[in-house]
Design brief:
206 residues, mainly alpha, 9 helices, 0% strand, disordered C terminus
Length: 206
């Protein structure tokens, strides 16, 4: 059974991601990106900056594959019947290599942002750290959390997921590894994929 509202969300988010991708291809760099990146880097995040290296490790090499495997493993340990859902969610990560090899967006340089404290290789669009973390957390919440949490606990879970993903995105901009639109695109892709998967899912424990 198709869930029309979720399918509509998937289409809207996917269309926004495609539009943003076309904008990046047609007019790089975007002046607004530079302004927003400088504004974020000028903020004192205090003790929250302690989490930034954690996000870097958990969302990309070397820790990313272990975090993804751990998320799937824990989810299936708590709800073995959800293996199809787990596979469907994690399949959304395929969009990352497709887009980075298609768009080839350069990362920020020292004359465009206030600071660069991390210099990862590869290209910038979209943020793989944000996309992968969103999918990892979604696996835990949808495959295991929905089986054991009450309704209010699921709401709290989604709020926690959103806050972690947002903070991870801010961290990638703060260290100069990504543009704000890289982060926005990753969030849109994750949202579109999750909404698509949920729109065609038969049951929460499938």
């Amino acid at each position: 059974m198709i869930r029309a509202p979720l399918l509509a969300v998937a289409v809207i988010c996917a269309a926004a991601a495609v539009g943003l991708s076309l904008l990046i291809v047609e007019s790089p760099p975007i002046a607004l990106d530079e302004s927003v990146a400088r504004a974020i880097q000028s903020v004192d995040f205090g003790p929250l900056t302690v989490l930034f290296p954690v996000f870097r490790w958990a969302g990309g090499p070397p820790g990313g594959p272990f975090v993804a495997a751990g998320a799937v493993g824990i989810a299936l340990l708590l709800n073995r019947r959800a293996w199809r859902l787990a596979v469907a969610i994690m399949a959304g990560s395929v969009w990352y290599p497709i887009l980075i090899f298609t768009i080839h967006r350069p990362r920020p340089t020292g004359d465009q942002v206030l600071r660069i404290t991390e210099r990862p290789g590869g290209t910038s669009f979209p943020s793989g750290h944000v996309l992968f973390l969103a999918l990892d957390l979604a696996v835990l919440l949808l495959c295991a959390g929905y089986r054991y949490l009450p309704s209010w606990g699921r709401v709290v879970g989604w709020c926690a997921l959103a806050m972690i993903v947002l903070l991870a995105g801010i961290s990638r901009i703060y260290v100069g590894a990504h543009w704000p639109t890289d982060v926005v695109a990753a969030i849109l892709i994750a949202a579109a994929w999750l909404a698509l998967v949920l729109s065609i899912r038969v049951s929460e424990k499938a």
